[in-house]
Amino acid sequence: MPITRMLELSELDPALREAAEKWGAQGGNVNMHRVFGQMPDFFRKFVEFYGPLVNHGRVPLRVKELARLRVANLNECHY
Q1: Which of 8, 12, 27, 76 has the maximum number of C-beta atoms within 10 A of its C-beta?
Q2: What is the b/e burial string over 32-64, where b = at least 16 CB atoms within 10 angstroms of the residue's CB?
Q3: Strand ranges for the chain from DSSP E
Q4: Residue 20 vs residues 7, 23, 25, 36, 59: alpha-carbon distances, Å
């Protein structure tokens, strides 16, 4: 049983909702937005740091996401 619920996209701060929708349209998983959207100020700062790591570089976003999913699966992480 989860210790916190994931917000619906409609419950997110408007700026975070827009970012989540854009991320989802690019093939990203919006669950992180739905969890950390409960702390919008923290999440904005995190995205400012994390966004360039994910969105830039030679490896396409889809490949990065597949690698994350594979690592999670190998570690039996259900997130």
Answers
A1: 12
A2: bbbbbbeeeeebeeebeeeeeebeeeeeeeeee
A3: none
A4: 12, 5, 8, 11, 21
Query: How many whole angstroms separate alpha carbon 43 and alpha carbon 40?
Result: 5
pLDDT digits (tens, 9 = 90+) for 30-52: 998 999 999 999 999 998 898 88
Phi, psi of 43, rounded to the nearest 5 degrees: -65, -40
pTM for the structure as a whole = 0.63
Going by C-alpha positions, the residue among 29, 33, 32, 30 that lies closest to residue 13 is 33
For the record, the structure tokens of 46 come out as 């995190």
